[in-house]
């Protein structure tokens, strides 16, 4: 065997080999954690930290960029599932419950914006960051629900909140991002042009979703596809949607969420999409967790002032969510507490844009970037545990089945 083949650097010079090794390590660690009653997907977090920029440095932004389309595809499946679990009819009929979830989104954004301004940030920066702090992470919530095999009224409400929060976050992000970009360019008169550009992204995502869903519906009806054949055709439509959004700079988040909403609320036929792709989704969750944690710089948590603000924001968002849930009559006090905790995660700018290589916006000041970095680090390290604990507190974890 040649020296080149047994050379250590050669084995680790392949990004695909690194990805495979990381996933293998993540799943091994996950099984160990699961055997001790802990969330299995923290194995992916540990693997990412060990192999990423805070550990051995084998997986960094350059490696992640090479697999960006793969990560976007995994994110697309998560967003589609979030949309598929949004019950628009229930949100309308439930009145108090639906209004409480909507109020929670508003309060989370308002409280975050006020705290950031009090901490010395400008209104444009505070508004931009507060827009992201409205939403809970679809990836963290969906993966923890899958990990716990949880189901029940809290999980149902949480799924609707995640979808509602991400849509609202995106809608609020449009004007705040336009304002931040216009201010950064030194020409406030350019705000209108920036706003129209961002609105065009939303409109493009909406049009692409309607087109791809229409093609899926037409294809399945013309071919008279049976239920077991439709998941493959739906997956093809999702890939078309993601690809068209990518090349047109349309909003992939809105488009993919809408695809899921249409499947649940417009499609009357039975579908078996979830059952067919459960294994693939679990691998996708592990991949996304591992890559997110591999890019976390733990030294950002050593900026004590930024860390203090980040912890304050985490606590304030949970408290605001709990206050907003008070008028709802259908949930008990413990269910409301559990729902507020399980919504403690947040999304990054890159996740809202369905581009995991984007971890922030360059127009932010140094202080704002430090707070955002601390928030994202805490999101990877702490938010999954909060979500997992919230599901257990609700009594909807699989270990609690039959005792609620």
UniProtKB/TrEMBL annotation:
Transmembrane segments: 12-33, 40-59, 98-119, 126-144, 156-178, 199-219, 239-263, 308-331, 338-359, 371-391
GO molecular function, one term: antiporter activity
Keywords, sorted A to Z: Antiport, Ion transport, Membrane, Transmembrane, Transmembrane helix, Transport
Single GO BP term: proton transmembrane transport
Presence of the UniProt keyword Transmembrane helix in the record: yes
Family annotation (PANTHER family): NA(+)/H(+) ANTIPORTER 1, NA(+)_H(+) ANTIPORTER 2-RELATED
Protein name: Cation:proton antiporter
Native source species: Duganella violaceipulchra
